[in-house]
# Entry
Amino acid sequence: MEKTNKGTLYGIGVGPGDPDLIPIKSINILKKVDLIFAASSTKNRESRAVNIARPYIPDYTEVRILPFPMTKDNNEKKASWLKNTQDILSEIESEKNVAFLTLGDPLTYATYGYVLEYMKELAPEISLMTIPGITSFQAAASRVNIPLVEGEE
# Structure
């Protein structure tokens, strides 16, 4: 399907916690997007991903924290994923390039994965770009100098 002239959604992994482990490509995108989204629990408005990326976010760039419930109620979770995706989509449809920050990698146990799936369903014409990040298990293995897999494992 042909992409539109609307904005782009960038899923950005900011790594396992050390601001020095954010991919250079992610830093470059953070410098040029119009708006940054990040997830928080509905119990607070904190985003560790934003705190990690803060040194690379220009002062003039708006950051919005989206609440996602930490619950086993699937209906509540799905309603939240849908509403937050619609909020992101409305910005993209107004021709803004936006980023969604996640800890670690955006496609490994990350809220972005749910947003991505809803975005594909609601607006398949939207341009999507995912930038991988270093996961906690990669960082931990590196820290203790133990290979995760070898040979044909």
Remarks:
- The domain at 8-144 is CATH 3.40.1010.10 (Cobalt-precorrin-4 Transmethylase; domain 1).
- The chain has one domain: 8-144.
